[in-house]
Structures are given as structure tokens and as C-alpha cells.
Specification:
This protein is α+β, with helices and mostly antiparallel strands. The protein is about 25% helix and about 45% strand.
Length: about 160
């Protein structure tokens, strides 16, 4: 059985990460990841087939930082906000200062004119490790989206 304190710590990390995105504090988002990490957004079907490519793919924190910079300075997209609704993380494996977890999520997107839609639902498949100070960070976050269809406005991280 998983230590309840670890489950709570992972839930807190998930909540803090989602809050940073939802509050448009995107510059904080890469800090939730280790320097060497993997962040990928894919579909459930592609994940089940073992396809490695993702709609979004980054394998270092520096790539995540570059993505945020591009969102702020280069990309043009309609103004929007996200609101994450997160399930409790299910710890699926534990190791030496490391855990694997699955967390269901849903994101409601609000557009500039006020229209709200369920934008995406799926599961985060995370591998997390503690840093030298004992804080949890994502070593890997695979965002598996239930739908096969993606809106062209997938700009902000999920």
C-alpha cells in the first residue's frame, strides 16, 4: 500500500501545476519538471499502439521553457483560459525516491468571448522523482487524451 503522505504530496504537485497553467503563470510550469524530462501530449489510441510521436513533445525542461517563450512572444492564438479538474492520483509503482502515478483530468476552456467548452479529458501518466531537497518533480508526464480529435488551438500546456 502506498504511503498516504506520498499520495497527498503528488496530489499537491498536480494541483500546483494545474493552478499555474490556469492562472496564466506559464513561466512557472517548466519548474515542475526535472532538467531531463519527457512531456508528451498524445491520444489514447496512439498511446495504446505504442506510437512515440506526440502532438506536443519535449524531452528537456529547456524545451518546455522555449515553448512558453514561443507562446508569449511568437505564436498567435485566440486568447483563452483553462480550468483543470483533477482526480486523485493513483500510485501505480514506487521505488527509491520515485513513483509512477495515473491521474484523470478534464480541462474546461473559456474563450475570449466567454464561450466555455469541455476542451479535453484524459489521464496523466506520470513518473515522478524527488530532487536533492526532497521535492517531487515530473521526470515524465504523458498526457493521454481520450479524444482522437484535437482542436487547432492546443497552444497552452495541458
Amino acid at each position: 500500500m502506498t504511503d498516504p503522505a506520498v499520495s497527498f504530496e503528488i496530489a499537491q504537485l498536480n494541483a500546483a501545476c494545474a493552478a499555474a497553467i490556469d492562472a496564466d503563470r506559464l513561466e512557472e510550469w517548466p519548474g515542475f519538471f526535472l532538467e531531463q524530462c519527457l512531456y508528451k501530449v498524445t491520444t489514447a489510441d496512439n498511446h495504446a499502439k505504442g506510437y512515440q510521436a506526440g502532438i506536443i513533445y519535449a524531452d528537456t525542461r529547456a524545451m518546455l521553457t522555449d515553448r512558453v517563450f514561443a507562446l508569449r512572444e511568437a505564436n498567435i492564438y485566440e486568447r483563452q483560459r483553462y480550468r483543470h479538474i483533477l482526480g486523485m492520483p493513483l500510485i501505480t509503482a514506487t521505488g527509491d525516491n520515485a513513483v509512477s502515478a495515473e491521474t484523470s483530468f478534464m480541462v474546461v476552456r473559456t474563450m475570449r468571448e466567454g464561450q466555455m467548452d469541455v476542451f479535453v479529458a484524459g489521464v496523466y501518466l506520470d513518473k515522478l522523482r524527488r530532487d536533492q531537497a526532497g521535492a517531487w518533480h515530473y521526470a515524465e508526464r504523458i498526457v493521454v487524451c481520450d479524444s482522437q480529435r484535437f482542436d487547432t488551438l492546443l497552444a497552452i500546456p495541458l
